[in-house]
Automatic annotation (TrEMBL):
InterPro entries: Solute-binding_3/MltF_N (IPR001638), SsuA/THI5 (IPR015168). The chain crosses the membrane at residues 12-30. Keywords: Membrane, Signal, Transmembrane, Transmembrane helix. This is Transporter substrate-binding domain-containing protein. The keyword DNA-binding does not apply. Pfam families: NMT1. The keyword Kinase does not apply.
């Protein structure tokens, strides 16, 4: 049998062990702090976006909150003034995906440019409208007759303007339509080169604010509900099925923040954009954030394609099968109940 250590030797051994353990703790504590390194992102993605637009909230928040990073995607925003320009960047390969409304998607399909919609993430009717000068005798929509109206031709605002005119039983020839770029709106309206502007947010707010009491603002409620979507070239989307799934999982978290935590979402947008988005708070309850691919988008694209042909904006021909422009696989995998496209 082994001999039992005397109590004095036991105490000495325990003291030595304690001292060694304490020294190890102190060494670790005194070492410079090094955060744990995240594994490298599996994918890199550039998203073309008119991120100063409230509808892009889910994408902007997903970038600013690290939701893409959490899915292994190093995502960055490429800023554009319009969704039309953003989609053009994605279709030309200057970006992977784009945030855009339905009209640019329709025109791409009409021109046989292979475009794929991955998901719609935002809708609202309180987005497009007309700002007019009261000193030009415009107090109601009927007063637009005979007036000069600025608009960017071939955009959703152009589609909405025709809807306004139709509601007032005004023929296109009864107004003078002036093609303007968005960056020209303010100067043209202030100088009186046009009497009104048909456009979308945030330009509506900016123009109305500049005119003050001299401004009359008419929203396109019951005329047009804008669906804002994530889209890209068919080749890029189809070649990256796993990336599309990761993107939608990150986007779903951005959607939830914008829908359920609006103050937090606006704070994230303020940080990302280095701008003040708090002016949007008053209309937030009219904004619909949710991830879908629905039959309504296809019906809207079909209606808009007929409008484009009737106005000479697209060549006559058979209406495209816009189902071919819906990329269903990723959303079916991530949120199958969100896909209501008839197929």
């Amino acid at each position: 049998m082994g001999e039992t250590l005397p109590n004095s030797r036991k105490r000495y051994a325990l003291a030595v062990l304690f001292a060694l353990a304490l020294a190890g703790v102190l060494v670790q504590w005194l070492r410079p702090f090094r955060p744990a390194l995240s594994p490298p992102a599996a994918y890199t993605l550039t998203i073309a976006s008119n991120s100063a637009y409230v509808g892009t909230c889910p994408v902007t928040v997903a970038v600013g909150s690290g939701y893409f990073e959490g899915e292994g995607v190093a995502a960055s925003l490429q800023t554009h003034l319009t969704g039309k320009a953003a989609l053009a960047a994605a279709l030309s390969g200057r970006a992977g995906l784009a945030t855009t409304a339905d009209i640019p998607i329709m025109f791409a399909a009409m021109q046989k440019v292979p475009v794929s919609v991955v998901a719609t993430f935002f809708k609202t009717e309180h987005d497009h409208g007309i700002v007019a000068r009261r000193d030009r005798g415009i107090a109601t929509l009927a007063d637009l007759k005979g007036k000069r109206i600025g608009v960017s031709l071939g955009t959703s605002a152009h589609f909405v303007l025709d809807g306004f005119l139709s509601r007032q039983h005004l023929a296109r020839g009864e107004v003078d339509v002036v093609d303007l770029k968005p960056e020209q709106f303010g100067a043209a309206l202030a100088a009186g080169r046009v009497d009104a502007i048909a456009t979308w947010e945030p330009f509506l707010d900016e123009l109305q604010g500049a005119l003050g009491r001299n401004g009359a603002l008419f929203y396109a409620e019951d005329i047009y509900e804008i669906p804002y979507s994530l889209a890209g070239s068919r080749d890029f989307v189809a070649a990256n099925p796993e990336l599309m799934r990761r993107v939608l999982r990150a986007l779903a978290r951005g959607v939830r923040d914008c829908r359920d935590r609006p103050a937090h979402a606006r704070a994230v947008m303020n940080a990302v954009l280095r701008a003040d988005t708090d002016a949007w708070a008053t209309r937030w309850q009219r904004l619909q954030f949710g991830m879908t691919l629905d039959q309504g988008l296809i019906l809207a694209l079909e209606d808009e394609s007929r409008w484009a042909v009737a106005n000479g904006l697209a060549a006559p021909g058979e209406t495209p099968n816009f189902l071919d422009n819906m990329y269903l696989d990723a959303l079916v995998h991530v949120a199958p109940a969100a896909v209501t496209v008839i197929r």
